[in-house]
Amino acid sequence: MKRILILGASGTIGHAIFKCASSKYECWGTYNKNKPLDLDSKRIIQWDIKDVILLKQILADVSPDIIISSLTGDFEMQLSAHQCIADYIQTMDTRMIFISTANVFDGAIDKPHTELDTPYPVSAYGKFKLACEKLLQSALGERCLIIRIPKIMTPSVADNLIFGKPVYRNLYISFNTPQNVAEAIIQCIHIGKHGVIHLSSNDFISVDMACTHMGKNGYVSEDLTLSSYATMMNCEITALQVSIDGNFYLVLQSTDDMSKNFAISCEDCL
Fold first, then answer.
1. 0.90 cut: is pTM over it?
2. Residue 73 carries which DSSP code?
3. Which of 96, 220, 190, 110 is nearest to 147 (CA)?
4. For residue 159, what are the CA distances in angstroms to 154, 231, 249?
5. Cα 62–chain centre separation
6. Cα–Cα distance measured from residue 115 to residue 193, given in angstroms and rounded to the nearest whole number
7. Do the beta carbons of residue 267 and residue 213 sit within 8 Å?
8. What is d(CA 60, CA 28) in angstroms, rounded to the nearest whole number?
9. pLDDT tens, residue by residue, 204-215
10. What angle do CA 265, 267, 269 make, to 5 degrees?
11. Cβ(237)–Cβ(226) below 8 Å
């Protein structure tokens, strides 16, 4: 039985992967402050991302066949942790899955983006995620899989879907659910997938329509402007690839045939 180490098993995606994979693989996981009480306590390890020495010890003790990174926290510390992981994998028969984000395209707002498009981040978060992608791909080659995900729909996200005031009619997003992402990742492990894949809904929707679909009432709706988007991303307007139709897209789509097996609509997510 393959052994999987999930870094960030207390987070939304990491937790879903642990739950989904436990029936097929020997799963181990890490958490920082909030220990997930519904996971196997003997295989959940407390780890602070600052502690690289403990990370090396965890890797040596667990000796995973697959490492899945769904970490959060300080960007520089995460980069150091992923460099440590890459160094470990280069000496072992181990594979890596890195959970990335639609934000690697948050400066290219002119259209939905597939795996064939060149990333173009302007936010600090997007730039950090792309730096991790490049580090791991360069070090590990075909032993690395980058999985980019959109907005993940959970009850708490649904309750807070309004991205500030007002809600924008012309800001389009895509979704997925933790369970659907986890099931797709299990399939990726099964077939030895590598490269880059987008796990997203097969369509997209405006934030305004998403709120309406969920029955939210009383919010203010208007159009997003280029200057307000630049403020959101903390960048200069000139750094953005401007939408030609007046809309803004933080949308992932996929050209990969495997992703079609896990196609889900925004309506299903909502």
1. yes
2. S
3. 96
4. 9, 24, 22
5. 24
6. 14
7. yes
8. 13
9. 999 999 989 888
10. 75
11. yes
